[in-house]
Amino acid sequence: MTARPDEPSSALAQIVAAEFRTRLLGEYLPRITKCVEMLGDDGVWRKPAPNCNSAGNLLLHLAGNTTQWILATFGDADDRRDRPAEFAADGGVPARVMLDRLAAVWTRACDLVDRVPIAELLRVRRVQRYDVTGLAAILHVLEHSSGHAGQIYSWTKQVTGRDLHFYDL
Q: What's the domain count of the chain?
């Protein structure tokens, strides 16, 4: 049987989608959830220093970033992001509400990326002020989420003085 020319690219699109889902929903979200539960509703808004962001700011920021870079780029979401508001917030939103919102945004993003064909991974589009391929948009969300998740993990360990036990087998 001869392979069709689009089979390797379709397989690549599926692998990208699977890794995207694994990282966001299988790794970052459970770890962020553990951290936020350890911090609680008050602790999630505490800032390490006046010029830093709270875990709550980062939760809002991750949802906003993913909405802009994935939901608005590949789906039908409007890009109405208010990035300054993500960092200006200083309370009033319960931790569980922010976690649920992030989980919903990341789940929708994964569902969209699952359906992105190779042509859309290669097509250049404008996000924020950048001209990027669809693949670059997906990779941006992964690296961006990883960086901010790491900040949340570190802050949680510093505030609670507890090991997060992410690697306990």
A: 1
